[in-house]
Structures are given as structure tokens and as C-alpha cells.
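Hi C.,

You asked whether I'd gotten around to modeling the 87-residue construct. I have! Everything is below, sequence then structure, no commentary in between.
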Amino acid sequence: MVQRRKPLVYTKHAGDAVRERELKREWIEATVHFPEWEEADPRQPIQRRYRTITAHGDRILRVVCLETDAEIRILTAFFDRGARRQP
């Protein structure tokens, strides 16, 4: 049985960030669906998902999202200079 992925819905802020930061949507989709690691936000019901983007100098992309039963809402995305995977 093939499992369908939830649709990604970009907030206005996320859409603006993608354009302003020249992020590719395929980078965001890969980070959301196949993160190298993720963290829950300690104050809100959102997740931070991280992935190394080799096509952009091995920088770490952070995508902040809120997942519901129906969709994954993208709140923002950016290259996170301080991101370090926890052992």
C-alpha cells in the first residue's frame, strides 16, 4: 500500500521567506518529508526539521512547521548557521 504524503501549505510569511532567501521548494519538501533530525519547540506545538543541503555548500536548512491530520503548514524556512545535530 502506498502512503500518500500530506499536502504542504505555505503561510504568507513562509512564501515571502522562500522568495527573499532564494530557497528552492524541493529543498523545503525534502527537509519536511525526510529530515536528518527534528526537534519539538518547547513552547509551541510546532516542529523544527533540519537537513543538510549539499547543493548550497552543505548548509543546514531549518524548516519550522505545524503538522495536523490533514496537512503540514510551513511557517518559515532559513539556513541555520547555529544548527548542530545533538548526539
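If it helps when you're writing up: The chain is about 20% helix and 35% strand.

Thanks,
B.
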